[in-house]
Design a protein that fits this description.
Blueprint: H1 2-21, H2 40-48, H3 51-64, H4 69-74, H5 76-85, H6 89-92, H7 102-113, H8 135-146, H9 158-167, H10 170-184, H11 195-208, H12 211-218, H13 225-232, H14 237-240, H15 249-257, H16 260-273, H17 288-298, E1 305-307, E2 317-319, H18 330-341, H19 344-355, H20 395-407, H21 423-430, H22 440-452, H23 455-464
Antiparallel strand pairs: 1-2
Helix pairs in contact: 1-22, 1-23, 3-5, 9-12, 10-11, 16-17, 17-19
């Protein structure tokens, strides 16, 4: 009888521990039920493996073929398919610029998100993963690879120095010579170049050559007109940029949005360069690098931007378009054009790169600097991917959390205690764009499990007596 009761208690405790631990998370989800972001090609593969998701995705693609959003949503079957797919990995998926299957990834992204937008939106969300690197990373790599700083020797011609640095790198030299040759090749007496081939060669250059070379060519600082004209001529504008007539900017935008790549690059530019007057630099997230990367990503498409003149006193950027003939859409057209011509974020980012400076992001109320305990670390190696940034931790967090552990509830109401999280929670806070959340109840589960397990031997001993 005693053994039977003991066996029942063990089963009971085991069931409690299982319930506290919770059911295992399905693939692609973390314990709290939030989907872990994946690229859209992988999300499509996950969807294809589930019959319900796969059939709904096929239905939605048929619904979007040749229909506008209102017509599509009038069909109940189409609406049901869209609602189901919003709960699939396809809804949160993103793409990486220059990835192997970039076009396929973007086609999958827009097949979902075009059905979610109400009409023609002025600004569209970027389908690309957020940029985490900063200009300081570019400066560091530029000095390592070329032995020169982007802003060294104020008397030199920085744009000429940039061309020399490019020629010292085989890949940069080959692709730069390739697009210059293609964009300068005369086709006939009436057609002095093939814009389509020129744009393709430019895209290959800016997608395949590291930013520490391409940025120096695009954003070099100039003190005289000869330098500024060299900078303006970087993309061979007579072929890639200028045309006989300037189209209307809204018409040019509509043409761009019919192509998945151009649409994505334009959305990325608006996401990363849209003027934000709540930030120190007028850039979203105070990230100059994200804006300059998005600007470079537009080159080689219908929306290719460039310097409008060789001025050394002011920088004006614009696509090759105007707002003539806009009719009652003139206000919207002017607003679209000002995002290039009068964009403080873009202007500040170009100037910062030319000066070799980056914004120093620091906490609003920094704690007094604390010397951390010495520890042995290996020297940081140069990252393979320049888009990966090194996360910096404030040493004052360690001191504050130690105080909380030592003094217990005395600091319950202090602001500092909000800094004392687990390591997994710190990772979530530092990278908010990554929806990899940790179930906060899991810690409580382990806490209760730890209190229940020591009781088991006592219960067994009492039964035995």
């Amino acid at each position: 009888m005693i053994l039977a009761n003991a066996f029942c208690i063990v089963l009971f405790v085991d069931e409690i521990l299982r319930s506290l631990a919770g059911p295992p998370s399905p693939p692609g989800q973390d314990p709290h039920g939030w989907r872990v972001p994946v690229d859209c090609v992988r999300a499509n593969e996950l969807c294809a493996a589930e019959p319900s998701c796969s059939s709904r995705y096929r239905t939605l693609r048929q619904c979007l073929a040749g229909r506008d959003r209102n017509t599509m949503l009038a069909n109940k079957e189409c609406q049901a398919a869209l609602e189901v797919l919003q709960e699939s990995p396809l809804y949160d998926c993103r793409c990486k610029r220059g990835m192997k299957k970039e076009l396929q990834c973007l086609q999958i992204y827009w097949s979902i998100h075009l059905g979610l937008t109400e009409g023609e939106e002025f600004y569209e969300a970027s389908p690309y993963e957020p940029v985490t690197s900063r200009l300081s990373d570019i400066f560091r790599l530029a000095s390592i690879f070329s032995g020169m700083d982007p802003a060294t020797n104020s008397k030199s011609n920085h744009c000429l120095d940039a061309a020399k640095a490019c020629n010292l790198n085989d890949n940069c030299k080959r692709l730069r010579s390739g697009y210059i040759s293609t964009c300068s090749k005369e086709i006939s007496a009436t057609e002095h170049c093939s814009r389509r081939k020129c744009h393709k060669a430019l895209r290959q250059f800016f997608d395949r050559v590291p930013s520490e070379y391409t940025y120096r060519l695009l954003f070099c600082s100039c003190k005289d007109q000869a330098c500024a004209e060299r900078r303006r001529q970087t993309i061979v504008p007579s072929c890639s940029y200028e045309d006989k007539e300037k189209p209307n900017c809204l018409d040019l935008r509509n043409t761009c949005r019919t192509d998945h790549l151009c649409r994505s690059r334009l959305a990325d530019f608006h996401t990363n360069c849209q003027a934000s007057f709540q930030s120190l630099t007028s850039c979203p997230g105070d990230n100059y690098q994200a804006c300059l990367g998005s600007y470079a990503g537009l080159i080689g498409f219908d929306m290719t931007p460039n310097y409008v003149d060789a001025s050394t006193t002011s920088i004006t950027i614009s696509p090759w378009c105007s707002c003539k003939g806009s009719g009652n859409m003139e206000e919207e057209c002017e607003k679209f054009l000002r995002d290039f011509t009068e964009n403080p974020c873009l202007g500040n980012a170009i100037q910062a790169f030319g000066n070799g400076t980056d914004v120093n992001i620091s906490p609003k109320n920094p704690s007094p600097p604390i010397t951390p305990p010495p520890k042995t670390e290996k020297s940081p190696a140069l990252p393979d991917d320049i888009n990966d940034s090194n996360t910096m931790y404030d040493t004052s967090v360690i001191t504050t959390c130690t105080s909380v552990q030592e003094h217990g509830p005395k600091l319950n109401k202090s602001k500092e205690q909000s800094l004392c999280y687990s390591e997994t929670q710190l990772t979530t806070d530092i990278m908010p764009d990554q929806k990899t959340f940790v179930d906060q109840k899991a810690g409580g589960s382990r806490h209760w499990a730890g209190r229940i397990l020591p009781v088991v031997p006592i219960l067994l001993l009492k039964l035995a007596l």
